[in-house]
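Record type: ASSEMBLY
Status: queued
Input:
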Amino acid sequence: MEISGPDFIKGLAFLGAGLAMGLGAIGPGVGEGFAAGKACEAVGRKPEEAGLLTRTMLVGQAVSESTGIYALVVALLLLFVV
Amino acid sequence: MLDVFSYVKACSLVGAGLAIGLGAIGSAIGEGLTAGKANETLSYRPELAGEILKTMLVGQAVAESAAIFALVVAMLMFFTNPVGKPLLAAWAFLGSGLGMGLSAIGSGIGSGFVSATACEGIGRQPAAKSAINSLMLIGASITQSTAIYGFLVSLMLLFIGFPESADISRSFALLGAGLSTGFGGIGPGIGEGLTGSFAVTAVARNPEQVSKVTRTMLVGQAIAESTGIYALIVALLLIMVV
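Status: finished
Output:
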């Protein structure tokens, strides 16, 4: 099978896209889950503050999500730009 | 000289090994955590043996499902007959094994967290056992979602038709699809498991607040799921679009 240079580069870019999104999704998943878990614990302890706790949880998770979105952006760049 | 048939067959066997080998890691850890916590709780409250055993077994059954998906994929690959399949199928088999195996790790560990704290919670608050059991089932089932994405992508990679000849870039795209859903499933699985585990503890402490805690748990798990969904989208793009 004849393999051309640009084709090989494109192929490894696709592999990189898979690795970027896959590995990049690990951290936000664990982190957001941990934040949500602690929020559940807090709601159980102080149910009257549920609104405030949910809001804080969402803000914290949004920050934690950012690295996942960086991974998505890089994966899409590798898929469609390279 | 290696012909296409042997190449594809060999890769399907490696893929089968990867699927069940990696896929067995998470479920076993999760079930072990559950059994450990159940034993610890029983040492304080031996009179609850029946209740805790039941919760432990139900929780372990949920954690097992990720490994069962991996077993199904491994069996499909093991018994597949690759006569007439193009070279691209070899890469698809490797991607399929990695996707299923890696994504099962997170779901197995995550649902183990949930059922471990459910056993502990029943020991602490036996009166709330029905609330704890149902919250455990909801939380643990949600952790399985990324293993289901991995299962879906592996089945697509196994059964989709491939062109006879294709660029080498397509091969790497199929491998990348498996790696994306596979690794992408680990984080959300563990994270949703942590959420479910804290939620079960909160209900065991304060059973009247079960509806508020369930709501917070579901919102939080939905957000933890998002990166798993990005990984699924990237995998589908790698299979279908590029």
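Annotation: The mean pLDDT of chain A is 92.
Annotation: Chain A touches chain B through 54 residues (CB under 8 Å).
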